[in-house]
Amino acid sequence: MFKLSEIKELIKAVDASTLQELEIESEGSRLVIRKPNKTEQVVYASAPAAAPAFAPVVSHPSAPPTAPAAVPAQAPVEGKPAAADANLHIITSPMVGTFYESPSPGAASFVSKGSSIKEKTIVCIIEAMKLMNEIEAEVKGEIVEVLVENGQLVEYGQPLFKVKPE
């Protein structure tokens, strides 16, 4: 079962990130945290599958709701046309977890902007539930842009790298 302090930490982490949903399963328990909007969070926790029980927990906002900041849709960057991105391959996260650019703290990054990669080249690690999952490139090419920061929480399907295929 999840401890209340762990759940509170996860709620804070999800709230501070761009994640909209976090789902964790551990020892027969399941925890789902969703951000339906900026003013509330809903948490559902369940016991083992034999006896499902759901208990919603809604946090109380400490400040009045604010309008979300406008996010421009893939606008051209530094004078480059948006069509240039159409030729790029995007490496996405296959799971929810924490993004690590290197195998250990202080070690060199697996890849960086300008790095040449081949299929099966390890580009990063995603830590999920204390398991380190090596993420491999699907194409041969050059890393054009790293889209996430080291230690950042990432969600399923979130773009991690832009690659110019060869």
Structure notes:
- The chain is mainly beta.
- The protein is 8% helix and 37% strand.
- Strands 1-2-3-4 form a 4-stranded antiparallel β-sheet, covered by helices on one side. The chain has a 4-stranded antiparallel β-sheet with strand order 5-12-10-7, with no helix packed on it.
- The longest helix is centred in the N-terminal third of the chain and has 13 residues, at 4-16.
- It is elongated and about 50 Å long.
- The termini are far apart.
- The model is unreliable at 38-42, 44-56, 58-65 and 67-81 (pLDDT under 50).
Task: Give the key terms.
four-stranded antiparallel β-sheet
Question: What is the element layout, followed by pairings?
Answer:
Elements: H1 4-16, E1 21-26, E2 29-37, E3 40-46, E4 57-58, E5 89-92, E6 97-100, E7 116-117, E8 122-128, E9 131-136, E10 141-146, E11 153-154, E12 159-165
Antiparallel strand pairs: 1-2, 2-3, 3-4, 5-12, 6-8, 6-11, 7-10, 8-9, 10-12
| Residue share in helix | under 10%
The total beta strand count reads 12
Major sheet: arrangement of strands = 1-2-3-4
The radius of gyration is 19 Å
Poorly predicted spans: 38-42, 44-56, 58-65, 67-81
Look at the helices and sheets and give the structural class: mainly beta
Largest sheet: 4 strands, antiparallel
Shape: elongated
Percentage beta strand? 35-45%
Number of helices: 1
Distance between the termini: 48 Å
